[in-house]
């Protein structure tokens, strides 16, 4: 009989146009057993969300084509995914960015570069 960690069943999507940020998040989350889905922009993410049904989404704000605010708003408008927590990622820690994130439905705001501890703490806040 194999005991499966609950973390292995949790799927976390990371949307960021920076391969460094995607890779860091993938390593940090993968080390503790989460399934990680990576997307390099909003369009890529929207295509994958339907296929993978992530339990939590980290979304960069500044991305080409479809920015994080637009991506978050589209996720939250979907009846199927409106309850999925979306955490905005940004290198700016401004009040305006936080307010705009709240307006489009984001659940929280994490400043980049994030640490492994801050990333995992944020995941635990929404998945435990």
Automatic annotation (TrEMBL):
User: What is the protein name given in its UniProt record?
Assistant: Response regulator
Name the SMART domains on file.
REC (SM00448)
- Domain Response regulatory, by residue range, is 11-127
Alphabetically sorted, this entry's keywords are: Phosphoprotein, Two-component regulatory system
Where in the sequence is 4-aspartylphosphate found?
60
PROSITE patterns according to UniProt: RESPONSE_REGULATORY
Under InterPro entries, the record lists:
Bact_response_regulator, CheY-like_superfamily, Sig_transdc_resp-reg_receiver
What GO biological process terms are annotated to this protein in UniProt? phosphorelay signal transduction system
